[in-house]
Amino acid sequence: MGDLIQLATRRTVAVERATAPPRVTFFFDLASPYTYLAAERIDRRFAGAQWRPAIGRRLDAGPLARGMVDTRELDAAERRARELHMPLVWPERFPGAVPFAMRAAAYAASRGRGPAFAIAVGRLAFCGGFDVEDPRMLAEAAAAAGLDVDETLDAAEDPRRDRELEAAGRALWVGGGGVLPAVRHGNGLFSGEQGVTAAMFALPAVVSAQRGR
């Protein structure tokens, strides 16, 4: 005999799905100091958010993340850090992309440890000034995030992870965003660190709803 279908249960599930608030997604690039400046606030404000490391030719994480030395950008990031009362130390190998760290972040997200890993990397890079492409630093971040260190380092060296990162970048671009970090909520999109800050004020209902789960 087949299983008994509980129509009342199905109706309840359907109603919950229809009335549940849209999920918050945080797109980020660990090479950007603005990801570091936004990450811990995002973690505190949007419990249960999906964290997606993203790369792509069409995405703009700022000239510093692209490896361009721009004194105006350096000054702007330092000024923003002071406004937020956060330390900001420039890493040993900066500016430039961090492909190993981003692949490891994709692995961490797949294990439900994306926020913890991204925050650990940000602290190592922009509080400690360490090169997070160094396997020793990635191991430190993995341990801090509660990840298996060997598996994290294997993921960091696996170029197949780039497809996942590029897919996240395309999803952001198709949704109308092109600046990292970014927050997406339903059809709403908040781009750049200032946009992320605006999202924290614009989406209070999401905060309370997700923290109550």
Give an overview of the whole structure.
The chain is of the alpha+beta class and 213 residues long. The protein has one domain: Glutaredoxin (3-Layer(aba) Sandwich). The chain is 54% helix and 8% strand. The chain has a four-stranded mixed beta sheet with strand order 2-1-3-4. The radius of gyration is 18 Å and the shape is globular. InterPro entries: DSBA-like_thioredoxin_dom, Thioredoxin-like_sf.
Let me know the largest β-sheet: 4 strands, mixed
Number of domains: 1
CATH class: Alpha Beta
What Rg, in angstroms, do the CA atoms define?
18 Å
What order do the helices and strands follow? Answer: HEHEHHHHHHEEHH
User: What is the name of the CATH superfamily?
Assistant: Glutaredoxin
N-end to C-end Cα span: 36 Å
Average pLDDT value? 84
In CATH, the architecture is 3-Layer(aba) Sandwich
Instruction: Look at the helices and sheets and give the structural class.
Output: alpha+beta
Low-pLDDT ranges: 1-5, 9-20, 205-213
Strand element count: 4
Helix run count: 10
Q: Give me the CATH fold name.
A: Glutaredoxin
Provide the β-strand percentage band: 5-15%
Shape: globular
* Order of strands, widest sheet: 2-1-3-4
Can you give keywords for this protein?
isomerase, four-stranded mixed beta sheet, 10 helices, alpha+beta, Glutaredoxin, Thioredoxin-like_sf, 2-hydroxychromene-2-carboxylate isomerase, 213 residues
